[in-house]
Design goal:
- With about 80 residues, this protein is mostly helical.
- Helices cover about 75% and strands about 0% of the residues.
- The chain has three helices and no strands.
- The chain starts with a helix and ends in a 6-residue tail after the last helix.
Length: about 80
């Protein structure tokens, strides 16, 4: 293997590593956005429930089944 081949291979390693780090950073950012969205959804459902909005109406607004509201809030029972 000559010097040019070594340089080409090492450049490929460097580029692939940079792309991998960038993809990992994007994935972490997406997970953070997803977590924030889940928390906001849970807070909105909780507020509607505490305000006395009928569970069926909350479920329809959330696009889910009424029984799933408690899972959204992290509860397994009423």
């Amino acid at each position: 293997m000559d010097e040019d081949e070594t340089r080409r291979l090492l450049d490929a390693v460097k580029q692939a590593s940079e792309e991998s780090r960038a993809a990992a950073a994007e994935a972490r950012a997406a997970m953070a956005r997803s977590r924030a969205a889940r928390e906001a959804r849970s807070a909105a459902v909780q507020a509607a429930m505490e305000a006395g909005v009928p569970r069926q109406q909350i479920a329809e607004a959330a696009g889910t089944h009424r029984n799933a509201l408690y899972r959204l809030l992290g509860r397994t029972t009423r």
